C-alpha cells in the first residue's frame, strides 16, 4: 500500500469521526500551545535582558562604598572621592572612561507641579560612558561643571511627570530643593534596567551637586567603562590595586569599597530565566504525553471497531506491515494536526500576551520544530501498540467479528 493512499485513508477515518478526533487531539493542541507560549515568553525575556545589557553596557563596572570594619567596629559610610576617580582615570590603561556619581532624592518643582526624583550629580562624560543620547538640547560640559552652574538635564519621562513636553521645558527653570536650575536638555528614553529607571532621573554637574545641593564632597559611586578586549577580571584587579593604595589599606585588611560587574548580574538573570523557561516548557510537555495516552486509547478503540475491515484487507493481501503502517500513520496524523492547531493557538496566545499584557515574546524556529517533532514522536510511540495489535489480528477471526 502506497504511503499517499495510507495517508488518504487516515484522513478519511478522521473525517468520519471528526468530533471524536477533535477531542482526541485536544491534549496535543493544549500541550503544543503551552510549549510554544512558554518558550516564546522565555525567549522574549532573554531578548529583553540582552537589550538591557546592550543599553547598560556589559563592560561597565560599578564601584561603591561597602560595609567595612575599623578597629572591630562596623562602619557603613561613603569612602569614595573624586580623587579616587581621577586616580583610576590616569593610572590605568584598561579604562575608556571613569565617571564619579552622587545622587539624592529631592523635591522638584515646575510651576505649580512638583515631584520627588533622583538627582544625579556626575561628570559630562556620563553620557558617553553609559551610552545615553540627548533628544533635545545638550548635555552639560566641563565648563558647567567647573563653574558649578545650576543647569539640569532631564530623563525622558520627567517632562510628562511635570505635565509638559520636552520641547517646551528646555530653556525653562525648575526648582531642585528650592534652588533654581536651567533645563538645558532632555535625554532619549533608556528604559528600566531592572532595578531602577534612569528615565525618571535628573542630571546636574557633579560640583554643583556637591556644593549646592547635597553639601557632600564624597561620591557614592564610580562607574568604570572597561576598554574593549580587556578582561573584566583584570580590570577589577587593577581597580582594587589603585583604590587600596589611595585609601591606605594595609595588606590583609578588608576593602572599604565593592566592585559590581553588571554583566555578571544580567548573566545571572539570564540563566535564571532560561531555567524557569525550561521548567515551564517541561511542565507543558506533560500535556503532550497525556494527549498521547488519549490517542493510544482511541486508536485501541478504533482497532476494535474496524476489526472486520482489517480482516477484509488481510484477506485481499494486505501484509502485517501494511496494517501496522496504516494505524501508525493515522496516529501520527492526529498528532501532527493537533500540533498544527496547537502552534496556531500558541502563536495567538503569545501575540495577546505581547499586545495586551505588555510582555515581550519571541517565537523561535527551534521551538516550532521541537513542538512538531515531539508531536510526531508522541504519535509514533503511542501508536505502536494499537498498530501492532491491529497487525496481529488473525484474518479469519477478524472476518467473523461482529
Key attributes of the depicted protein:
6-stranded mixed barrel, alpha+beta, single chain, 2 domains, 402 residues, 14 helices, two-stranded antiparallel ribbon
Give an account of the 3D structure:
- The chain is 56% helix and 18% strand.
- With 402 residues, it is α+β, with helices and mostly antiparallel strands.
- The chain has two domains: 3-52 and 267-400, no CATH class; 67-255, no CATH class.
- A hairpin with a 2-residue loop joins strand 8 and strand 9.
- Helix 2 (18-56) packs across helix 12 (320-356), helix 3 (82-91) packs across helix 9 and helix 10 packs across helix 12 (320-356).
Task: Give the structure's gist in a few sentences.
This protein is α+β, with helices and mostly antiparallel strands and 402 residues long. It has helices at 3-16, 18-56, 82-91, 126-129, 142-146, 158-161, 166-169, 206-213, 232-246, 262-305, 307-315, 320-356, 365-391, 395-400, and strands at residues 60-65, 68-70, 73-75, 95-110, 113-122, 134-137, 151-154, 173-176, 179-187, 202-205, 221-226, 257-261.
Amino acid at each position: 500500500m502506497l504511503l499517499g493512499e495510507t495517508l488518504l485513508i487516515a484522513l478519511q477515518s478522521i473525517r468520519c469521526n471528526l468530533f471524536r478526533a477533535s477531542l482526541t487531539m485536544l491534549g496535543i493542541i493544549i500541550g503544543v500551545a503551552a510549549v510554544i507560549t512558554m518558550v516564546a515568553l522565555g525567549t522574549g525575556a532573554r531578548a529583553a535582558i540582552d537589550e538591557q545589557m546592550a543599553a547598560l553596557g556589559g563592560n561597565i563596572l560599578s564601584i561603591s562604598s561597602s560595609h567595612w570594619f575599623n578597629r572591630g567596629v562596623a562602619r557603613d559610610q561613603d569612602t569614595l572621592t573624586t580623587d579616587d576617580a581621577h586616580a583610576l582615570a590616569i593610572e590605568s590603561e584598561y579604562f575608556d572612561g571613569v565617571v564619579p556619581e552622587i545622587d539624592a532624592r529631592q523635591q522638584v518643582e515646575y510651576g505649580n507641579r512638583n515631584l520627588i526624583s533622583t538627582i544625579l550629580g556626575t561628570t559630562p562624560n556620563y553620557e558617553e560612558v553609559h551610552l545615553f543620547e540627548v533628544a533635545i538640547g545638550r548635555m552639560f560640559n566641563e565648563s558647567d561643571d567647573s563653574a558649578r552652574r545650576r543647569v539640569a538635564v532631564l530623563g525622558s519621562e520627567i517632562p510628562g511627570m511635570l505635565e509638559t513636553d520636552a520641547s517646551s521645558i528646555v530653556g525653562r527653570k525648575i526648582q531642585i530643593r528650592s534652588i533654581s536650575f536651567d533645563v538645558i536638555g532632555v535625554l532619549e528614553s533608556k528604559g528600566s534596567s531592572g532595578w531602577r529607571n534612569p528615565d525618571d532621573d535628573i542630571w546636574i554637574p557633579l560640583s554643583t551637586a556637591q556644593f549646592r545641593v547635597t553639601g557632600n564632597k564624597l561620591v557614592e559611586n564610580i562607574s568604570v567603562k572597561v576598554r574593549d578586549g580587556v578582561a573584566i577580571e583584570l580590570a577589577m584587579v587593577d581597580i582594587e590595586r589603585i583604590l587600596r593604595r589611595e585609601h591606605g589599606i594595609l595588606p590583609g585588611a578588608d576593602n572599604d569599597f565593592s566592585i559590581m560587574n553588571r554583566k555578571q548580574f544580567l548573566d545571572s538573570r539570564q540563566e535564571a530565566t532560561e531555567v524557569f523557561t525550561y521548567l515551564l516548557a517541561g511542565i507543558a510537555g506533560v500535556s503532550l504525553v497525556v494527549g498521547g495516552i488519549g490517542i493510544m486509547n482511541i486508536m485501541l478503540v478504533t482497532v476494535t471497531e474496524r476489526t472486520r475491515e482489517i480482516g477484509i484487507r488481510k484477506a485481499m493481501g494486505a501484509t502485517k506491515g501494511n496494517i501496522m503502517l496504516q494505524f501508525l500513520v493515522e496516529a501520527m496524523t492526529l498528532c501532527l494536526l493537533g500540533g498544527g492547531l496547537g502552534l496556531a493557538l500558541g502563536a495567538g496566545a503569545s501575540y495577546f500576551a505581547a499586545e495586551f499584557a505588555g510582555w515581550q515574546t519571541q517565537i523561535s524556529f527551534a521551538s516550532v520544530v521541537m513542538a512538531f517533532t515531539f508531536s510526531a514522536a508522541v504519535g509514533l510511540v503511542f501508536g505502536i501498540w494499537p498498530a501492532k495489535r491491529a497487525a496481529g489480528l488473525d484474518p479469519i477471526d477478524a472476518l467473523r467479528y461482529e
